[in-house]
Design brief:
The chain is mostly helical. It is built from four helices and no strands. α1 packs antiparallel against α2. The chain is elongated, with a radius of gyration of 21 Å. The C terminus is likely disordered.
């Protein structure tokens, strides 16, 4: 029920923001398209699914206790970064 309310509130508000931007006057087409693009990026970034506490899929995940501290993905990742420190090469 709570997640449905959050979702509907987000959809209603984002639709209102999109309509406001679509109906803005006084800009040329290029600027208006930029405004619409950046507004879409901003509104999409604020989607409830992007935040752990408002994402029902994330909240449904079981809490995992690692039997060994070295098995924790964060520790494995940070340990991997520490061992590769100074070895990173720019690929571009």
């Amino acid at each position: 029920m709570l997640f449905s309310y959050i979702k509907q509130s987000y959809l209603l508000t984002s639709g209102w923001i999109y309509d406001m931007v679509a109906n803005v006057e006084g800009f040329d087409d290029k600027t208006k398209k930029k405004l619409q693009f950046y507004t879409r990026q901003f509104v999409d970034a604020l989607s409830p699914s992007n935040f752990a506490m408002t994402n029902p899929e994330w909240c449904a995940l079981p809490l995992v206790r690692w039997s060994e501290p070295d098995q924790c993905p964060e520790r494995v990742c940070w340990g991997d970064l520490r061992t590769r420190q100074g070895q990173a090469q720019y690929a571009g």
